[in-house]
Amino acid sequence: MTSTKKDPVLVVLQLSGGNDYLNTVIPYTDPLYRDNRPGVHINDNELLKIDGNLGLHPSMGSIVDMYNRNDVAIIHGVGYPNSPRSHFRSMDIWHTCEPDRVGTEGWLGLAARDIDPDKENVVTVVSMGPSVFRAITVPGVPVACVNNLDEYGLLTGIDNEQRRDKILNRFTRMYAPAVGTGQVMDFLGETGLEAMKGADILKVAPDKYSSSVEYADTPIAKKLKGIAQVHLADLGTRIFYCDHGSFDSHANQLGLHTSLWKDVSEAVSDFFADLKEHGEGENVIMLLFSEFGRRVRDNGLGTDHGAGGAAFVIGDQVKGGQYGEYPSLKAEDLQQGDLVPNMDFRGLYSTVLENWMSLDAKPIVKGTFEKPLFV
Amino acid sequence: MVNEELNLMAHLMRRAGFGATREELEVLVEKGYEATLEELLDPQAEEPAHRDEFLRYHPGFWKPITSPGMGSAPWLHDLINSGHVLEEKIALFWHQVFATGQSKIDHWHEIMRQVDMFREKGMGDYRALLVELARNPAMIFWLDNCDNHAYAVNENWGRELLELFSMGVDNYTEDDVRDCSRAFTGWTLAPTIPRNAHGRHDWGFEYRDEDHDDGEKTFLGHTGQFNGEEIIDIVCQQDATARFIARHLYNFFVADETQVPSWSNTTPIDPDAIDTLAKAFQEHHYDIRSVLRVLFNSDFFKNAQFAKIKSPAELVVGTLRLVGGFEFPSPGIGNLSKEPGYMGQELLNPPSVEGWHTGPEWINSGALMKRINFTADMVGDVTKPGVSAIVGRVKAQGDLSSENFVDACLDLMGPMEVTDDTRRELVEHASESGTLSWGANSDEVSAERVGEMLQLIVSTREYQYT
To answer: What 3-state class would DSSP assign to A79?
Structure first.
């Protein structure tokens, strides 16, 4: 990175619930695909071929367009050894890089602490949606958790602006550091002021924003639009987080998966178009991951929890293409009926942290892992 | 206007329940501390919440097939409405200790049934509770005891029983874990019926003798052909168990301890208190009700007012009980049930078997903002019966100077203690609008001013404490 470049920004889109790898990146020439998916498969004439062996889900047209522009890296067989097949546990492992014990520090929280150790910018990390994800949580690291950018802030239920301003002013004074009230009171004070400051900073974003891109009226489009607004307002946010789901397609998978990927693909495509329109796309990459892939054999109308999955990294600076190998579908190569991951997600994170964010990955992912060099 | 009796009663009701309105507190003070405590421990006069009534208005929450993120709505209804508040609180306590989550169970109703079991048995014999827990279908699935076979031991349940549910780490060996797990082989789920389009079927417990390892086991120095119940007997006899449960009770009901995983190498903040509770646990043969009686009657409890950060569940339920108006199974309860989750405590879905990290770890800038906004929205609505009652009580005091106005509000919101700095800010804020006066022309404005003062009060740091 040279100093004239803008700081690199990472957007994470978490596909919650376990996205079905086999019907997302479809090994259409592998007869085992059709054998294992009598009920839940994509027909050859519908899928969007990206090479002689693989095709993407029919509703991923916008992502295929970006792939053809070399802006999409598909990372095959992502996961970690001994997948527990539990949503929570697996998501937790992805969030903390701690497969052997329960970790409490999120990988992006740690990254944020490295980026801004003195907490100079309380909006270094912005999460869109009501939940505070563990990936971005480390005690003492500020996180702005925004449900709706237009209504974000403290005491937004107070309609009268003048009254609210007065109360917020009072709030700031009440949370000011005071001597001798104790550690927890100090911590509460500091946290309250961070929340207040973060809201003040972020509230300018929607006003500054204008765009010709019309996002769809879907939850994920709203989140990505919010992220675009904050990014374009140039507030110094380096890590954005959001999720979409649920991809937990035990039943009615074909319909469910189609609408999920349609919403995601369109929203992602609109998001990058929006950044491009403002000339602000070149320092942003987006990582899409899911806590696990799904069982190779379908259960009739859906698929159950599996192991290895696919991740996507998207952006102008991404070296498009495919990384790693599609895990074997042969019965003797499966573990408990699942694809065996052959790309450790911590290697994927290491590439993001080191080659994109210029941070030291080792203490964050707890070790050294082979890196797919997509940036 | 310090009123020790009232302060203490408010403290008891916050900790043994989810707070009480001033009207309720006055009745209880009249009744006396000990009598109130006995009613909490063994409710006779008050009514519990009625699940059937809730389901009558919200049939969608009956064994829901999907996970709309609102699975805890039936419990929220109980938490808000039950007259047996300590039963609800102890259910919340065991839900934190024996943390079982929807993320893996994928069957809200089974976790709800587990919580119902905590409500029913949570104040009784801890030994019986552990046996019930070992037979609980959600727990069996959560900790893989259905995969614990005579020919292939799965140690998940056996280990957590010792590490998280009874003794704590460093009090047993890996061999103990192994043989403990062997003793629970064959404790499994009855065959489950797959979900259908309208809901899910209940799970059941089944003991399969043919899958039970009946061989000799050595566990914590005892040797025999132990089955699960005998293991639980030995576990209950351990000093470590008495101390571990005592510390959990202290952390939940008295004051914030460090996080559970560090207990093996940090001293309790009040070692004497832990001794007292552990001793009561053993003397009363693991009867939790008796331990709670000792706890709530102790000086260390009575002196621990505002020594804890409210959990999101305490904050949300306490606020809803204070403002009132949610007694009828109102349509918004599904969304309300998501609120604790937004603040970091999704009920029925703890992050892991270790439960939630508590105390100051409830707080981060995102969660704090949610706490403040939620409570401020609630108390700022002067049409809500509980808020309207507070306004009425302030009004009954006639015209008030800024200082008296603030003190009246702080008193009615707890009574709450705030630092001198906080009080000064509140008074300054009040004084910007002058004396609080009542009369035909000023009633509405003054009511709004009270609402606004309550909003400011719930925004304070002090309100985060219980």
So the answer is: strand
- Whether B363 sits inside 8 A of A167 (CB atoms) is no
Interchain proximity A187–B360, CB inside 8 Å: yes
Domain identity same for A162 and A144: no
- Take residue A121 and report the two structure tokens written for it: 């910018």
Output the pLDDT for position A161: 87
Report the domain count for chain A. 2
- Give me the half-sphere count of Cα atoms (radius 13 Å) on the Cβ side of residue A358: 11
8 A C-beta contact, residue A70 and residue A319: yes
Return the number of CB contacts < 8 Å for A and B: 123
- Geometric angle at alpha carbon A194, from A193 and A196, rounded to 5°: 65
Instruction: Quick: pLDDT tens for A160-174.
Output: 889 999 999 999 999
Q: Assign residue B355 a region: left if phi > 0, alpha if psi is -120 to 50, beta otherwise?
A: left
Look at residue B66 in the predicted model and tell me its pLDDT: 58
Tell me if A338 is assigned to some domain.
Answer: yes
Residue span of the structural domain in which A176 resides: 153-202
- Provide the pLDDT for residue A1: 41
In a domain, A4, yes or no: no
pLDDT for A178 beyond 90: no
CB contact under 8 A, A191 and B309: no
Partner residue opposite B367 with nearest CB, options A91, A132, A184:
A132
In which residue ranges of chain B is pLDDT below 70? 1-2, 65-69, 196-199
Model pLDDT for residues A62-100, shown as the tens digit of each residue = 999 999 999 999 999 999 998 877 777 788 899 999 988
Identify whether A32 is part of a domain.
yes
CB atoms B365 and A198 under 8 Å: yes
A148 touches chain B (CB under 8 A): no
Instruction: Report the residue of chain B nearest A249, measured CA to CA.
Output: B66
The answer on A267 and A165 residing in a single domain is no
What's the pLDDT score for residue A2?
A: 43
CA A177 to chain CA centroid, nearest Å = 35
Strand partners, A27: A54
The confidence band for A3, taking pLDDT boundaries of 50, 70 and 90, is very low
Contact across the interface for A178 and B419, Cβ inside 8 Å: yes
CATH no. for residue A44? Answer: 3.40.720.10
Asked if A306 contacts A292 with a C-beta cutoff of 8 angstroms, the reply is yes
Same domain? A282 vs A311: yes
pLDDT for res B200 = 78
Same domain, A217 and A312: yes
Residue among A339, A264, A333, A256 nearest A294 (CA): A339
First to last CA, chain A: 12
Domain-embedded: residue A208: no
The answer to whether residues A261 and A326 belong to one domain is: yes
CB-closest option in A88, A176, A189 to B352? A88
Same domain, A193 and A287: no
Give yes or no: residues A226 and A189 share one domain.
Answer: no
CB contact under 8 A, A199 and B369: yes
Average pLDDT over chain A reads 93
Q: Determine the Cα–Cα distance for residues A133 and A223; give it in Å rounded to an integer.
A: 15
Q: Do B342 and A195 lie within an 8 Å CB cutoff?
A: no
> Model confidence over B309-345: pLDDT tens digits?
999 999 999 999 999 988 777 778 888 999 998 898 9
165-194 in chain A: CB under 8 A from chain B: 166-167, 170-171, 173-176, 178, 181, 184-185, 187-189, 191-192, 194
pTM listed for this prediction: 0.81
Q: Coil, strand, or helix at residue B99? A: coil
Contacts of B456 in chain A (CB under 8 A): 167, 170-171, 174
Tell me if A76 sits within 8 A of A342, measured CB to CB. yes
- Cβ A154–B373 below 8 Å, yes or no? yes
Indicate whether A128 and A266 sit together in one domain: yes
pLDDT at A180 over 80: no
Q: Answer whether A195 sits within 8 Å of B369, measured CB to CB.
A: yes
CB contact residues (below 8 A), chain A span 32-91, against chain B:
86-89, 91
At residue A148, the pLDDT reads 81
